[in-house]
Amino acid sequence: MSEVPFSGVTDFFTTCSPSTCTICPSPGASLYLFQPSLRRSLYFVGGDSTSLWNTEVFRYWLSSESFSRSLRYDVSCGLQTMTSLLGFVGWIGIPDLDPSLYEKVGLGLSNCTLPQPKSYVDVEPVTGRIWQRRIQLQLHAGLRACDVNGHRLRPLNLTYLDKAVPIVSTDRRAILSGAELSFYNYKVDRLMTVSCGGLIGLSVIAAIVVAIGVVILFKPKKINRVGPVLDGESSASNLNSRHINTT
Question: What gap in Å lies between CA 164 and CA 106, rounded to an integer?
Answer without folding.
Answer: 9
